[in-house]
Design brief:
Blueprint: E1 20-21, E2 26-27, H1 36-47, H2 52-69, H3 75-83, E3 88-92, H4 96-108, H5 124-128, H6 132-144, E4 148-153, E5 159-166, H7 170-180, E6 184-186
Antiparallel strand pairs: 1-2, 3-5, 4-5, 4-6
Helix pairs in contact: 1-2, 1-7, 2-3, 4-6
Length: about 190
Amino acid sequence: MVRPIPRAPPMLPDNESDYEDDGHDFAGDDGEDLDDEALVWQLLLLINPGDEDTALQQFARYREAREESGDEDEPVDTVREAIDWTSGFHVDWKDTPSFVDVIDQLAARWNLRIDWGVEDPSDEDFLDGVDVPELMAIAYDRLREHGYTLWNYDTGGDAYAGWIALRRDDENMKAVARGLGIDVQPANEAF
């Protein structure tokens, strides 16, 4: 069950339907597909489990950026800007130090520490000997042990991007991403 968009200040989408994942698409009670704004709200709730305040702040930034751009950018690009280093990551394909830093920061939100398999994950020899997809697979495995899933999505370029959500929300994540046209998969399967 996906949580409905709460009745809240005008910065939130105005939709009181109770949304359910039917296994294919997110739809309201009348069977109509949810609009991008409602799907973005659901995504922000998924990647900020138990932290609706952060989701609200990110949604406000998302809406402001969409208004400024005239809705020209893809929703995922605007979401990436709104969540970067708070609820998501976006790193260059070869930037292993930044990837370790951002994932450590994201995991710390739930008092988790990633065991990268070395005493000092900032060690240059370690970072030079791995690539971002290998690190994503390590982080994915460690987070799954604690009930979380590290996701990545196709950026269409030379970068890796994604977020963390509760493991129990895996099917909802797939459905929301599909509704937004985001090609997402678990981070142990890097794009």
